[in-house]
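QA checklist item 7 of 12: single-chain prediction sanity check.
[x] sequence parsed
[x] length recorded as 407
[x] structure emitted
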Amino acid sequence: MNYVIKGPESLKAVVKLPASKSICNRALILNALSYSPYDIQNLSDCDDTEVLVKALNSNERNFDIKAAGTAMRFLTAFLSKIVGEWTITGTERMKNRPIKILVDALNSLGAKVEYMEKEGFPPLRIFGSALKGGEISLAGGVSSQYISALLMIAPLMEEGLTLHLEGNIISKPYIHLTLQLMAQYGVKADWNGQTIRVRPQEYQPIPFVVESDWSAASYWYAMMALSHHTEIELLGLFKNSLQGDAAGAKLFAQLGVGTTFTDRGVLLKRNGNSSKKLVYNFVNEPDLAQTFVVVCALLNVPFRFTGLQSLKIKETDRIEALKAELRKLGYLLKDSHDSILEWNGERCEPEAHPVIATYEDHRMAMAFAPVALVRSEGIEIAHPEVVSKSYPRFWEDLKEAGFSIQG
């Protein structure tokens, strides 16, 4: 199935954004580890969160988490300390997403996790038991989800956990997010330099409300940047957000979008700014990269984005996907060192009828949807249903904002 999307002449929207997937999935694990009697409020209905809810509320021993990378990593660690024998698998793409670093770390801390098929990749067989814990070292450049998975179970290890992060630490805001949420559930950690220490202690159950998702907000910021007759209000965003992607508001200020916080969320307005070139290191906000790559190209703003090393192991190789799909629209991007993507204004002949492939990646669909605002013929997007991974109501929200969607 494909959607053909056409933008409205004037865009007016009040949008109830989905809850933060990053917060939901961490809070679900912490809620379970604290044996909380409280239901988490404002839980996301996205695929990634729903598979985690289903797994945590299940009496099954075999779990299929489909395409949910966060659930794969968090559950692997969680189940390693729950007494019993468990298996966990996912989609074909998930079976090709590496997990060896996490498995090796868990096994060195007293877990017993085995590969059921290919060495270093899911599916996994987990023999859950009490974990000894201790001291380990990881490269700081590994996915923050590995680090968060270990940190959340750390206080329940017999010796706690001392985690040494070596080299450059990527995605620091996601690690801070995990530690801040752990603190809300009563567990203290010490992060000094390259070392995080979590002593043995118990989680305390608390009532918890999830804030809206700044990653989802970025697509509406993109629409504001690309449209001149626009009023957008985004509900449920916090000024003092725990989410690293809240940094997108300041970055969008360089592309003409101003942010005003209210007691309901944020109001977006054009501020008249327009950068001649955007240079930014996305190491702390990798999930915003696709949005900014597409917006800058459409605004004819050359860019050089670094810190993108984690994009190659996401739902797809996002660097290659962005190059391929923007070429269809006439933009020639260059990448280097597996972590840099740039555009110097170089163009090519666009395809007459481009169809944007989404690669089973929700963020490809949502990052390219705003293209409809700058092409009179709109834009065609393949497999639009992938948005269910993080923002199930995305297309409905676009329709309510005045977009035409045929498919």
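[x] summary fact logged: Residues 21-33 form the longest helix (13 residues).
[ ] second reviewer sign-off
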